[in-house]
Amino acid sequence: MLNEKEVLKQMRLFNISRAEAEKMVQDDLDIDKGLPKPWDLTPEQLKNQRKLCNVTTRKAPKSTTRTRKENPTKQGIISFVADVLAKCDLTQEVKISNAERVVDFTDADGVHYSLTLTAHRK
Fold it and tell me: Which residues 6+ apart lie within 8 Å of 22 measured at CB?
């Protein structure tokens, strides 16, 4: 049995005839019940649709180790600073911790210091 209110609503909304609205409401009821319709996909089309709609997790990218390019300018600056500090009478011990980044030194009073060189990007 068709719902008269629903038929009238479909007629008004879609500006269709009574026969078309009744057919639409009946098709909706059949679909709700799970009955097959002529426009349903064939089993082969369903299989293809599931294959295309299959959502899989994205594979994690392979981890690559990046090799850093040496920066001869920074190495030269660090070695120059280390040489200057070594020649200075105020420092006792000078050590290059990182050839392109850090110089550690100790003053005459035994206080430890470190100078860090940072090259900013362009």
Answer: 2, 7
Contact 71, 119 (CB under 8 A): yes
Strand residues in 45-101 grouped as ranges (E): 91-98
Of 76, 116, 111, whose CA–CA distance to 97 is shortest?
Answer: 116
pTM across the whole model: 0.47
- What distance in Å separates the CA atoms of residue 48 and residue 54, rounded to the nearest whole number? 10
For residue 112, is it left (φ>0), alpha (ψ between -120 and 50) or beta? Answer: beta
Which residue type is seen at 85? L
The single residue listed with the structure tokens 């209110």 is 5
Q: Strand, helix or coil at 74?
A: helix
| Gap between the Cα atoms of 26 and 34, Å rounded | 12
Segment 11-23 mean pLDDT: 92
E strand residue ranges, the chain: 91-98, 102-107, 112-116
